[in-house]
Prior knowledge:
The chain is an alpha/beta fold. It is about 35% helix and about 15% strand. It contains eleven helices and eight strands. The protein has an eight-stranded parallel beta sheet with strand order 2-1-3-8-7-4-5-6, sandwiched between helices. The longest helix has 24 residues.
Amino acid sequence: MTPQHPMSRDWIRFLFYKGPSFVGTDASFEDADYAVFGVPFDATASFRPGSRFAPLSLRIMSEYLELPAEKSIRICDLGDLHPTVSVDVMLRRVGEAVERIVEAGKIPVILGGEHTLTLGSIPRLGGIGGLVIFDAHLDMRDEFMDTRINHTTWLRRLLEEKRMEHVIVVGARAYTEEEFAVADDMGVQLVTSSEIFLDFRGAVKKLDALTSGLKNIYLSIDVDVLDPGYAPGVSNPEPGGIAPIHLYELIKIVAARGLMAMDIVEVNPLFDNWSAAACAIYAAYYAMLSSTTSSSASR
Length: 299
């Protein structure tokens, strides 16, 4: 019997490109530590719709970046959830996906889409040690544009439903007096963009102290935490943001505590020059790398 050439057994994979995957990963779900999926949803966008296109944009950009130690992170890209314009349907689908991924012993990595999606994932997770959010906004409004569940209210709705002892918002700079008061009443800790810009070492020490002893952290990264000069392609840009290098270094501190799940949201390809997408990918990647390295060191 004549032996087959290796290409004859796998000619489809050899000849054809199925499309971009997050950082070009080809790990199976069974072998992966991280399971990535996209949520193409921006139905409550109040200023610039378009973040529903971000999951694809992030995948495309991720295949062209030179990322460190790629082989040390095992990632499976599951694809996107089916599109919908219903907030309730989106939240239910996100929650079910996250629940199934965690039950299988994997860490979910969610590519938004708008920030409302976080309201679907966290309530389905048990044992979260802390919630750390990088965001220009507090998202603590009671109502906005005649709705109570949207990208400006999701954190308030979450904490009304599920009080959490450790909630930290990093990079905040754009919020109402009411939001600040509600956040303070609910025990939300802030590391503002001004603190980071004027005294980065002090901000590092503050975040390190706030996250000391935490594990199983849910990390949520809204890319508008960055200054629009670095990341113009977001749905709600706010001046006075932080720099990418500051974002990465602060994320490393948080992720080294150990991640339970992560989402990265509000990149808007319709207004981007690929800068916001690139920054988002590096942020998510450094989080995974730091969490993986920390976990391996503790074994």
